[in-house]
Amino acid sequence: MKISLKKSGLLVAAGILSTASFAQSTKEASIEGTTPLGSATQYRTWSIGVGAGVTSLQNIAKFNNGGYDKLDWNLGYSAYIKKQISPSFGLKATYFGGKTAGYDNSDKQTGFETKTPWSVALSGEFLAANTNWRFFNSFIKPYASIGVGVMNAETAAIAGGNKGEYGDSYSKIYVPADFGLKFAVAKGINFELGYQLNWANQRFDNRTVDQQYKNDLFTYAHAGLEFALGSSSKPALNNSNPVATLVNDYTVKYDDLKAQNDALNAKNQALQGQLDGLNNDLKDDDGDGVANKYDKCPGTPSGVQVDGSGCPIVVKNETKVVEKVVVTEADRKVVADAIKNLEFDLGKATIRPTSYATLNKVAALLIEKNFSLKLAGHTDNTGSRELNMRLSKERAESVKAYLVSQGANASRIEATGYGPDQPIASNKNAAGRQQNRRVEFTLY
Question: What is the pTM of this model?
Answer without folding.
Answer: 0.51
